[in-house]
UDP-glucose 4-epimerase (Cryobacterium frigoriphilum), 322 residues
Amino acid sequence: MAWLVTGGAGYIGSHVVRAFLAEGIDVVVIDDLSSGHEEFVPANVPFVRGSILDGGLLLDTFANHAITGVVHVAGFKYAGVSVQRPLHTYEQNVTATAVLLAAMDSANVRRMVFSSSAAVYGTPHTDLVTEATPKSPESPYGESKLIGEWLLRDMAVATGLNHTSLRYFNVVGSGTVDLRDTSPHNLFPLVFDALLAGRIPRINGNDYATPDGTCVRDYIHVADLAVSHVAAARRLDAGEPIEAVYNLGSGDGVSVGEIMSTVAAVTGIDFLPEIAPRRAGDPDRIVASGDLAARDLNWQMRHSLDDMVRTAWEAGQAALPV
C-alpha cells in the first residue's frame, strides 16, 4: 500500500515524499512538472508525469498502484499572481481538486491530507491566528484553497472521505541539499538571487509596531512541515480522530529585519537592506498557533531561523554550476 503525493516533484511535495520514505511508507508521485523537477523524485519512487486535471490518468494511476490515501500538494501557489490569473488559479486549485476527488471516489480511496494555506485568513485582525480565526481570503489563491477545504468537507458527508487540511504561512529552508525552493516569488530565493547578482535586498517598510520596525511573519522549515503530513496520514490510516483543519504555526514568528541579518551572517555577504515604503495593507504581525497540530500531528519547530537560512543557502549553492 502506498500514498499518492500530487505535486511530489515540487519544493514542498518532494520533502513530503522524503518524509514518507524515512518512515518506511511507500509513495507514488504525480506531477506535471510545471513548477516541479523530476530530479527531485527519488529513483525508486514510481513517477507519473501528468496533470491531475486528467481524470483518466488519475484512474489509471489508482488502478496500477495500491493507493491507500492521497497527500494533495499540487496547485498554483502564487497569491499575488493569482490576482492577474484568477481563471488559471481556479482551474489548477479547484477544478483539479474536484477531478482528483472524483477519481478517488471511483477508486474507493477515502483518505486525504490537503495542503491548504494561511491565505484563507486574509489579513486577520488578531496577533495570533487559530483555526477558529474568521476566514476572509483576499486573493483568488486564498479563495481557491478555502473552496478546496469545502470540497473535502462535502465529500466527507457524501462518501465518508476521511481528511484533514494543513494551513501554513511561509515555508522555507531545505531538508537536504538536493531539494531547494526554486520559486521566483518566495522571499529566500529572491534575497539569495539578489545577493548573488550584486543587488541589495529590499525591505518594504521599517515603521511597523514591532521590536525592530519590520513586519513579523510566520516562517516554518519545510522538513518540519513534511513530518506533520506523514503524521496526519498515519492518523488517517489508523482511523484515529483528526481535526478537519490544523495550523502549522510557530507561535511567535520572526521579523523581516531578523531574516536579513541572519542571511548576512550565514552567507558571509555583508549588506544593509534598502528600506522601501511599506506596502498598503501589510499588517504589523501575523503569526499562527500550532497547538492543535502539536497535540495530534507531531508538529514542532525543530529548526531555528539560522537553520532555515543555512539549509536554504546550502541547497541553493549546491545547485550552482561548478
Notes: The domain at 2-171+219-247 is CATH 3.40.50.720 (Rossmann fold). The chain has a mean pLDDT of 95. Residues 43 and 221 are 25 Å apart (CA to CA). The radius of gyration is 19 Å.
